[in-house]
Amino acid sequence: MRLNRFYKAILISIFVLWCPLVPSFLLGEEEGKNPSALQNEQNKQQKVDPSQGVQQKVSSELNIKAGHVEQIDKEHRLASDYVVISYQDILLQADKTTYNVSTLEFIAEGNAVLEQKDMKIAGDKMEFNMKTGAGTFHNARLTVKDEFIIEAEKIEKIGEDKFRVNNMVFTSCTQPTPHWSISCGEATIHIDHYITLRGPTLKVKNIPVFYFPYLKWPLKRERSTGFLLPNIGSSTLRGMIVSNAFFWAINRSMDATFFLDYNSKLGWGRGAQYRYVLDERSQGNAYGYYLTDRDTESKRYNFKLLHNQKMGWGFRAGASVDYLSDLGFRQDFERDFRVTSSRSIRSWGFLNWSRSYYSFSLQASELQTHFIGGDYVTMRNLPSMTFSGRSQRLGGSPFYFSFETSFTKPTRMYKYKDGSEKETSFSRIDLYPQISAPFTGLKWLTITPSFGLRETVYDKQVDPDSQQVLDGTLHRRYYQFAVSIIGPVFTKIFDTPDNSYSPKFKHIIEPRISYHYVSEVTNQDRVILNDATDFSFPFNEMRFSLINRFLAKRRDPTTGQLVPWEFLTLEVSQFYSLDPTLGTSFGRNYNKLRGVVIGTREIHAFSPLQTRVTFSPHPQFQISTRLIYNLYQRDLQSVAINGYFQHKDRIGLNASYYRSLPIEEGIIPGHIVGTNGWFNLQKKRWEFTYSFNYNFQLHRLLQGGAGVKYNTQCCGFLFKFTKFHFGWRQVTEFRIMVDLKNIGSLANYF
Q1: Mean pLDDT of 587-614
Q2: Residues 6+ apart with CB under 8 A from 744
């Protein structure tokens, strides 16, 4: 017991003697000074002025570098002469800094800069707490991810990545006088989330152009919920236009957009779009728009649905629905020439199965086509089922067997402009087995004979004299025999080691001869024509063709290896009828939209001569032509030219030309040229686009347009002119758009 008391007395004595020395000892550790010297001068201001600067460690995470450090009192220090302070992920630089070693509160003055994560703040003066991350910055400039710049009288950091700003200017421009900016008295900034502005004003240079009472805008690259920038303008069709939209980012795989538009001539428009990706096998989108036409008081709408679904065991499903109140809706609201010029509205759905050699398809479809005169036809297949088997060998024999069977229930309804209607509906079962025996014993010669039998059963038929549809089963039957001969194939290789295009060329001459016989078709005059399956006629013909292929060894840009590239293809072909009472099959087809047979009705032994040329010296350039020359009329029956050219991201051109001459009955005349393209100058500072489609037959520009866009570091200005002149769409439209970097686009139509 006495011994324990003795030990306690010794410990107490040591504590009493050393306690006054501990603070001085610790201070000496901080400043790198002698502890005894600091103990004698602890109430006096001390100076440290080493010639090579001072580096301090107040805590394990705080590191201070400065050219000069002074101790103001027990808790405070003054660092000057280029101060650099680091703490965790924070870096502070200033000319002069006063700080508290306990609370880690800093007051920085003179070229003060604070960096943390993706943001940087520079100001005249700042008070900042390293521990809490809160602070106030005066006459400051905040830069976020080198994408946004915010200048303000005062910026308060109220969270790790949250700020409150007063009297600020917000922009993405780095110019002294920004091309565009948004100014407001008060705002809240949440990095990687949103910026909330109260009473902001949009300015171009220093000129106010738009005022918002309240604006909340995302500061992140990911999709964000919020209102989109409105579009304001005018149109000869819709009048004054104010378009608004709200975007809802539901989750990473779903989003929705809601529209509310004002059209002074048409009325209020409401719409929504929903997009989704359920998984890697399922995706789609739905769109709907509705308004009540102010002039006609009619309900006008458009609904679209697109869905694709991959399932197991070889199943795949999909649907595409396009439902319009009237075709004029598309003309009034769409700007794509391909969409506005289309006279057809189509919807379909399918369920497909494919396994090994077999496949099954269940489809439902509707196609509505409007004609210029005001009539339209609606064709439905509800349903259409097909089961087929690809060519496969029968045991060890040289024969290959394939088949195709189908069941279809088509409906065709004509509606004429006088209000009258005509509807035809029937059911059809089609069986079409084929057998072939290809001979490939020689590398330069391939001979393939084939035989097929076709049986089609209808539940209705048409009377040949009155053309009235009658009830009653109809059997249509015919068989066909064909032989295809490819070769002999001639090949020549040219070594050109000094050629800059290719070190080796190859020329292939490939002649082809085929024979095709179709027997007399029973009851063809009683068949209700609906599509190509119903349209058939007998023929006994041969086809001759000669193909020249030119290949070169070109270096693959991805692998660097030399690979063959077919840069030129020439093909000449012609049909010859062996039966003087029958014509050839060339050009004969059935137009299911109008329900008429297209093609010459005159019987000639030789068909027109076809020539195809495809020239593609590089994947970014191609031109192809198709010429059809009528030997009997000694004139070109049709000419088609298509081509494209693209050079990296600097220029892209597409062009097409088509002309057909009605030199024989059944040939539909046409004479149209179309082209579109774009090119850039000065590294995309200037972007130019153009497009036009001209009908020489009507001497009318169907569609034409040109646009120019000027891009700066932080915005772009677009001016575009477009004119539509076809059918009932005759519109001239100008478009002005301002694209603000990291903000969005403001567009005007007039």
Answers
A1: 76
A2: 228, 229
